[in-house]
Amino acid sequence: MDKQTSSQHLSPTITPIDISMAAYQNMAAWLPGVGKQIEVGPADTPEPGPGELLIEVKAIASQPAEYKIQDGSLPYPLEYPTIIGISFSGTIVKVGTEVSRFKQGDRVATNSCMVLRNDSRFGAYQRYALTT
Prior knowledge:
- The chain is 18% helix and 28% strand.
- By secondary structure, it is α+β, with helices and mostly antiparallel strands.
- It has a single domain, classed as Quinone Oxidoreductase, Chain A, domain 1.
- Strands 5-4-3-6 form a four-stranded antiparallel beta sheet, with no helix packed on it. Strands 1-2 form a two-stranded antiparallel sheet.
- Strand 1 and strand 2 (39-43) form a beta hairpin.
- It starts with a helix and ends with a strand.
- The model is unreliable at 1-19 (pLDDT under 50).
């Protein structure tokens, strides 16, 4: 083979891909019910509504209330399966309407109050979570 043929043969074929959704694939630690073990699996990536932020979670502050919710000693009436977790920090990836104080790329720490909301989109134990 000459140089030209050789380099053409070794060049990878680059196919353009849509990375908009791939960049925001969500995984979560699902609690299937009271007294059940956590199961890791895919979750929908939430879209921030008015006054909400979508955070790429970087750190989670584990709370005693979370294992008490899991074992049933704190009897919150949650819809299962759910994603628990109260406090987390990370980077804002999307900003909902009516938000003026924060912007994409800001680093934040938050208490999402997922349990009070009964809304797994606000649970800390996932790659992308909502907060207000």
